[in-house]
Amino acid sequence: MSRAFVFPGQGAQTIGMGRDLAEAYPEARAVFDEVDDALGDRLSALIWEGEIEDLTLTRNAQPALMATSLAAMAALKAEGVEIGAASYVAGHSLGEYSALCAAGSLSLADTARLLRLRGEAMQAAVPAGEGAMAAILGLDLAAVEAVAAEAAQGEVCEAANDNDPAQVVISGAKAAVERACEIAKSSGAKRALLLPVSAPFHCALMQPAADAMAEALDRVDLEAPIVPLVGNVIARAESSAALIQTHLVEQVTGRVRWRESVAWMASEGVTEIYEIGAGKALSGMVKRIDRAIATASVGTAEEVQKAASAINA
User: Fold this and answer.
1) Which strands, in side-by-side order, build the sheet including 167-173?
2) CA distance 299 to 313
3) Nearest-CA neighbor of 232 among 92, 122, 121, 51?
4) What is the pLDDT of residues 142-201, one digit of tens each?
5) What is the DSSP letter of 204?
6) Among the listed residues 196, 202, 193, 150, the one whose alpha carbon sits nearest the alpha carbon of residue 172
7) In what helix (H) or strand (E) does residue 134 lie, and over which residues does it extend?
8) Which residues belong to the active site?
């Protein structure tokens, strides 16, 4: 029996996430305190008592979701569960940074600062209102790629997140994404929904952000992870720090190959996936990819205790 720990991406944020972890576990509270110190602001206050509109800003959401995931990991460790209890780690987009921090590749302070910069760089890469993302439901990747190519008309329109067999997210210029939504509906998609995001992530328009991350990653110490990382852009395990750094830069403009990543883990014998942090979105995707994989969410003190009991059994 093999398990993986996976870490959520943007969209999972909620006001109050991680608060009961911090109240139940001093180790979890220390994670939020260290992130606050690294960023020089009270991000924890925003997470627990702020407005959702402020938390959803990319510059805040990215380090906030990471902090919540790492607080959950700290709570698991307090219950006797080490990162080595997993055969693999993986994360969805920004969640890849959470996974690397959990696996000892990056320090918590560096991870917080990298994600603050990543959020700001992604936001700044495309002027507000010029880009968009949309979820296409009911078409597979090949069909969505064909839709995006037809809709592009000289503009950027790409499959950005291959989430599960029936959900692919597209990203690019706003007009092209809107055209793609109409084409998708006429091509048999069940739904085509514009997403409430502030920038078109994971497409060629993000190249300025990729350049910024390349510079930022050159300035930090990135070690080989204790547990192999199943990378977004390669959909298989990698343990080389140098290659992981390259892939983190490519990930900004590249596709999140989540469906393939989960399928690869299943092919390597993974039978349990624990979603560490806020929300249950990844667990839902996993179920649609491979129903044989057992999933569990680990984002509250009660869920930590339940997960620790199962893992330590």
Assistant:
1) 157-164, 167-173, 131-137, 191-194
2) 20
3) 92
4) 999 999 999 999 999 999 999 999 999 999 999 999 999 999 999 999 999 999 888 999
5) G
6) 202
7) strand 131-137
8) 93, 202
